[in-house]
Specification:
Elements (H helix, E strand, L loop, with lengths): L2 H19 L28 E7 L6 H9 L7 E7 L6 H8 L6 E6 L9 H13 L6 E5 L3 E3 L3 H11 L4 E7 L5 H17 L2 H4 L13 E5 H6 L12 H11 L4 E11 L6 H9 L2 H4 L4 H28 L2 H24 L10 H20 L5 E2 L2 E2 L3
Parallel strand pairs: 1-2, 1-4, 2-3, 6-8
Antiparallel strand pairs: 4-7, 5-8, 6-7, 9-10
Length: 388
């Protein structure tokens, strides 16, 4: 057997494991519905109080498309919104107050105090929101990003999910924009790779070590957050959602993570540069700034995603039957596992054939994230270092 044939056999074996034994990562949600809404009437104990916390830094461009959808939720129980203005220079706070005029829910706009050393900017803003919400003593805090829009009834659906399935954390990965060509190429793969790292079924399984959340929409039981040590326990976390999921689950909290259609990001990423910046900001942090993990990640991407198409094409050209068959089989399994995410986004399953190319892009983004870190420009967000 040639080296290429052996590599192709190893790759297809890896894909068979991933498809059959990796927590069903390629399915769009644990139940297959892909949504966050929950049916049913009034919860048995009545509707608990919820305070939505929105960290916002220079978000005036997107707030008109998102904040009104949160303020218009008409949640049946006590509900209000706290927007934390995190040092904005574009009039975010004043705009938020104007958008709240006549809304169904109350809005409080608070200015974040000076960030303490060692805190990540977003986590500190979230903490400031929790402080402002404390007087309400809500049963749940909904951490949500400024670019997230909610369809009617979405917040009630999140609460039903938490109460009905006894969850301390209910998180929804928002529907991302796929309006442009680059978004259609990169965004479904971003969701796919995230699910591969953190299989949603394992996140929701009690006793599993896999823990994560999607930062755009995280409904958290306040007592569970307090029991876990509060946001101070993850104060320096650049990837706040995964850190919060891990913190809660390690403290015994029950968690749930799914895709959603009624929670939608309105932030566009029209150019490759925009998507590149989104990934490189935290990719190397995800690898704990380890050169060894970086090398292992790039090598793993090369074997799993690069070898199958190379083996299939080169094997066919050279008459190497083992490489051709194993490469084609690995490529086929790989593509099949991306089809559910593509369908979730309303895109053609044929796009899955290009997954190796997108994986190569992500490998390049990860390497660039490391390069920027060592150049002293890692973790930059809206003109400042993300961790103080």
């Amino acid at each position: 057997m040639t080296v290429l044939g052996a590599a192709a056999v190893a790759a297809v074996a890896g894909w068979v494991y991933l498809a059959a034994g990796h927590g069903g990562f390629w399915r769009t949600s644990p139940t297959g519905d892909g949504g966050s809404g929950e049916g049913g009437g009034v919860p048995a104990g009545g509707w608990p109080g919820v305070v939505a916390v929105v960290p916002a830094r220079d978000e005036a461009a997107v707030l008109p498309d998102t904040l009104p959808t949160l303020l218009a939720q008409e949640y049946p129980g006590p509900f209000r919104v706290v927007l934390v203005d995190d040092g904005s220079s574009d009039g975010t706070a004043a705009l938020a107050k104007r958008l709240a005029a006549g809304a169904a829910a109350d809005l409080e706009v608070v200015a974040a105090r000076e960030r303490p050393a060692g805190w990540a900017g977003k986590v500190w803003a979230m903490s400031e929101g929790v402080r402002a919400a404390a007087r309400d003593r809500p049963e749940f805090v909904l951490f949500t990003d400024a670019d997230i829009a909610y369809r009617p009834g979405a917040v009630a659906g999140l609460v039903r999910a938490a109460l009905g399935r006894d969850r301390d954390l209910v998180s929804r990965m928002a529907l991302l924009s796929v309006a442009t060509g680059w978004e259609r190429l990169v965004v479904p793969a971003f969701v796919y790779f995230f699910a591969q790292l953190y299989p949603f079924r394992r996140v929701g399984r009690d006793g599993s070590r896999t823990a994560a959340a999607a930062g755009g929409c995280m409904l958290v039981r306040r007592t569970a957050l307090d029991r876990a040590g509060g946001l101070a326990a993850i104060g320096g976390a650049l990837i706040d959602d995964v850190a919060l999921g891990r913190l809660l689950k390690r403290s015994g909290a029950r968690c749930e993570l799914r895709l959603a259609r009624d929670v939608e990001s309105r932030r566009p990423y029209p150019r490759l540069a925009d998507l590149w910046a989104m990934v490189v900001r935290s990719a190397y942090h995800q690898l704990r700034y380890s050169p060894a993990l970086l090398a292992a990640t790039v090598a793993g991407l090369a074997v799993l995603y690069g070898v199958p198409p190379v083996a299939a094409i080169a094997g066919a050209a050279t008459g190497n039957g083992t490489a051709t068959v194993a490469g084609a089989a690995g490529w086929a399994v790989m593509a099949a596992t991306q089809v559910p995410v593509l369908r979730f986004y309303g895109l053609s399953p044929a796009r899955a054939v290009a997954l190796p190319l997108v994986a190569a892009l992500y490998a390049a983004m990860t390497v660039d994230s490391a390069r920027r870190h060592y150049a002293g420009r890692g973790g930059m967000w809206k003109g400042r270092t993300a961790v103080g």
